[in-house]
Design brief:
single chain, alpha/beta, four-stranded parallel beta sheet, two-stranded parallel ribbon, 4 helices
Length: about 100
């Protein structure tokens, strides 16, 4: 089995369509190495597409038997998840 290296991806303050490609690339690279922790404390604004990207990344991690966690999500991110009705999709990965 390949060596698993814990990776951390820090989300920027604004995760919109301009930022999503770079975040996607970081997540893809990180998920090739092992478990991933996403630091989400700085997020002030997040698009729906960005939240769906995180759900997709979590599913990819699950399929590869890697842990995937979102650490200390900001109030803005938590509110966006709630507003969009995505609590169930994020419930297992949110770490305060």
């Amino acid at each position: 089995m390949a060596k698993q290296i814990q990776q951390t991806v820090a989300l920027p303050e604004v995760i919109d369509l301009d930022a999503i490609d770079a975040i996607r690339d970081q997540l893809i690279d990180a998920l090739e190495d092992g478990p991933v922790t996403v630091q989400a404390g700085a997020v002030e604004r997040v698009s729906t597409n960005a939240l769906l990207l995180l759900v997709s990344a979590a599913e990819t991690a699950r399929r590869h038997h890697f842990d995937f966690a979102i650490e200390a999500p900001s109030a803005a991110m938590s509110a966006a998840i709630e507003r969009l009705g995505l609590e169930a999709q994020f419930s297992g990965m949110m770490k305060q």
